[in-house]
């Protein structure tokens, strides 16, 4: 697999300091003024309003008290933004961790959870300094969709009890099938008031999302449910009745009890926390990059996530990771840089110190409804269906990861899914190698060097400043998608057209197709036309399936046809302007 662009130099190798300089320092060096601060204050307040009910709901669903979720959002959110490698990342408790955290609490208690969180932070820091963040790109797209959808199913199942206000005689099982059996046997104990609050909360969230998307729908829905429960004296369980409310003070840092036996017991949990935290955080950073056109520093981000988890554990918090929904909210709210994330943590701290008593009136059914909506949104239903139709290989990897996450274990699902993806890749590469063995793995586009190693597509194209052409050679798969994507994204808005030649690409998987779609969307925002040439039937089918279709991109037979069309359109535009 190779790629090159006309006139491109060898990429700059960043120094250690460049790799691990927090984006906060970068933003301040660029110049930070009052207008940018106002933008960050507004964005930070917006994210805090979203994070407030979510942090409590996630902590409760994880088997911890709601104040631990808020502590995690305050400490973790501040450290991730202050030290991280992404301008817009928002850290805090995440729904993806609910399954792992609840299982750890069940086996080892809260002290075991805090120790596992701290140890996972150490692992994340080590991974970052060893520059392992670069290798997260090797997680295939079907694996991420599969375990995310599996987590969504488990989260929803874990909330059924509070959604319906069921009364259980014994402990609720952790496994899905036994859990559903126990909940089904208790269906006659449905609390109609709790069910009504659930329906009303979900309805308010969905209606506000449709009618007033800029409003904080989750907070409004939870607040309305709390007012209704208090005003009508509804017989429902609340944060106050179950947890005694939220302490109106912030805890002092302290170390959990540490022993060799305890470390051995929580080691598998700590490894799982670190693995999922790395994947989830870097995926969130990639989402922010796609929304803003920026690029994050993956290894710096891992170090920051590690420090944030250690800091959260010291104050009694739970696992910290980058949160996709809150990060996207931060971007949409107009954040300028990491200071918005730091301010979001400050606003949450103010809530703990000032308004904590009001949280006692929040019904657990309302928070369960919030998590039900979160589970629905994180299921990635469209992507799931697309992968099932994409190919038998992607469908097999997706299904195995999804089912193992639900019925066995999240870590097992990720490991097996990755292994299946690797086996599938080896099989595809074996087939590709037989066909392409006589073709050189060199990519040339429009420059001819002195040794004659590169030859231009077209003599006129080499001097054309308005067009940039790349040719990809070899199988374009998940392992190469990040590297090639970073090169392809290097085009400038000074160009009018961007041609990507697939004539020498025998195979393209879903991760690569998704990367091409993201590149085309970025080009569209910059007013650059994207033309894909030389696509085989299979490659084009994969691209179209994953959204790289007209008018986002154009398809032409070869580079010569694409360049000729560009020249004709440009000549016509010049003639129209002069007339």
TrEMBL record:
<feature type="transmembrane region" description="Helical">
    <location>
        <begin position="215"/>
        <end position="233"/>
    </location>
</feature>
<feature type="transmembrane region" description="Helical">
    <location>
        <begin position="270"/>
        <end position="290"/>
    </location>
</feature>
<dbReference type="InterPro" id="IPR011547">
    <property type="entry name" value="SLC26A/SulP_dom"/>
</dbReference>
<feature type="transmembrane region" description="Helical">
    <location>
        <begin position="139"/>
        <end position="160"/>
    </location>
</feature>
<dbReference type="GO" id="GO:0055085">
    <property type="term" value="P:transmembrane transport"/>
</dbReference>
<feature type="transmembrane region" description="Helical">
    <location>
        <begin position="69"/>
        <end position="90"/>
    </location>
</feature>
<dbReference type="InterPro" id="IPR002645">
    <property type="entry name" value="STAS_dom"/>
</dbReference>
<feature type="transmembrane region" description="Helical">
    <location>
        <begin position="110"/>
        <end position="132"/>
    </location>
</feature>
<keyword id="KW-1133">Transmembrane helix</keyword>
<feature type="transmembrane region" description="Helical">
    <location>
        <begin position="41"/>
        <end position="62"/>
    </location>
</feature>
<dbReference type="InterPro" id="IPR001902">
    <property type="entry name" value="SLC26A/SulP_fam"/>
</dbReference>
<feature type="transmembrane region" description="Helical">
    <location>
        <begin position="413"/>
        <end position="430"/>
    </location>
</feature>
<feature type="domain" description="STAS">
    <location>
        <begin position="457"/>
        <end position="566"/>
    </location>
</feature>
<feature type="transmembrane region" description="Helical">
    <location>
        <begin position="302"/>
        <end position="325"/>
    </location>
</feature>
<feature type="transmembrane region" description="Helical">
    <location>
        <begin position="345"/>
        <end position="375"/>
    </location>
</feature>
<dbReference type="GO" id="GO:0016020">
    <property type="term" value="C:membrane"/>
</dbReference>
<feature type="transmembrane region" description="Helical">
    <location>
        <begin position="180"/>
        <end position="208"/>
    </location>
</feature>
<protein>
    <submittedName>
        <fullName>SulP family sulfate transporter</fullName>
    </submittedName>
</protein>
<dbReference type="InterPro" id="IPR036513">
    <property type="entry name" value="STAS_dom_sf"/>
</dbReference>
<dbReference type="Pfam" id="PF01740">
    <property type="entry name" value="STAS"/>
</dbReference>
<keyword id="KW-0472">Membrane</keyword>
<keyword id="KW-0812">Transmembrane</keyword>
<dbReference type="Pfam" id="PF00916">
    <property type="entry name" value="Sulfate_transp"/>
</dbReference>
